[in-house]
Write a structure and sequence with these properties.
This protein is mainly beta. It has helices at 161-167, 250-258, 338-341; strands at residues 19-22, 24-25, 33-39, 44-51, 57-60, 82-83, 90-93, 111-123, 126-139, 150-153, 173-177, 187-190, 203-206, 215-218, 220-223, 235-239, 246-249, 265-266, 274-277, 288-293, 299-304, 310-314, 317-323, 325-328, 334-336, 344-349, 354-359. It folds into two domains: 19-170, Beta Barrel (Cathepsin D, subunit A, domain 1); 199-359, Acid Proteases (Cathepsin D, subunit A, domain 1, Beta Barrel). It is globular. This is Vacuolar protease A.
Amino acid sequence: MCLSGTISTAQIFNGMDPFKVSMLEKPHKVALLTSFLEVGTPPQTFTVVFDTGSDTFEIPGKNCTTCSNQQIFDWDKSSTYKYIDNGDGLWLQFATGTGVTPVNSTDPDWTMTMWQVSDTVSVGGLPVLDVPFYLIDFQSPAFSADPFDGIMGLGTAPESFFGKLVESGFPALFSFYLTPHTVGKAELTLGGIDHSKFNTPMIFSAIHPNAGFWTLLSSRIVVNGKTTESLSQERRVIFDSATSNLVFPKNLTEAIYALISPKIRPNPQVPGAYGIPCSQLRSLPAIIAFTFPSTSGTPFNLTLPSCELNVGPFASNPSLCQTVINAWEFEFDAIIGGSLLKHYYSTWNAGNGTMGFAKL
């Protein structure tokens, strides 16, 4: 089913009240959940996407000449701003975009150059002092179309905003209620779990040690009740809140599609994307279940329902509909994004090294 839940109070850890951050959708080609935060003293407001697939926080600086569609940070107006001299700055390349179009890791369309600073950052009314982040000097044109100013990484690294929050004594966990856009009221809870958002058991799984991301080990993938030898091999799966689709190695992508329909084919006009005539997609069953080990030792499934298969028509060919799994052109970990996460209330706990999921 493609539904969701209700509202109330969050569980309290370490005697500290969790902070709730309301998320919103902006007009865009995909359902993209963003929120507001404030940087500096006095505060300057920015719209960001929360990204569990990265550790860094970056917003445009006032020197950026390619950031005309975004709000820019003026450090001269902040009394708490500090410059961090770490050499020649940072060049950053993103492995996935925020939309549904595949991104190759060598694609120059998704790059930034920036330099490190620190300042006070407030999320959901919660101020954190001396947060290290990056000011963008240059961004490639692909970022200009994004309906947000910056990216707030929620990775596990101690130098991230989340790491600084934990360093200040806050509980080392956060939770996402990533609803479908027809439901709304999506929410990030910092430091707690809002049990009113779900009425099913929450199942926990240990994150893969030293993976550098929010990564779980999956033992198999089942498609419409069937699997294959290649789909039954253990693999690492990264959970990325800022990626809309699923992104798998090419051989894995095609093994899954082979169990759905032979008519799902690569779209040569959009490398890495697949499609099928829209007229043949509407009633096509495509239930994809990913099996993970729970902390109790019992395997459990996270399931992508059939309604997520259809991403929508390709702009270059409206009679052809894009399907939800994109392919890497190289061997890398699998990535699960918002298409699946919005069907579960999820908890990300760096303190005990687990992720938890409750079906909505």
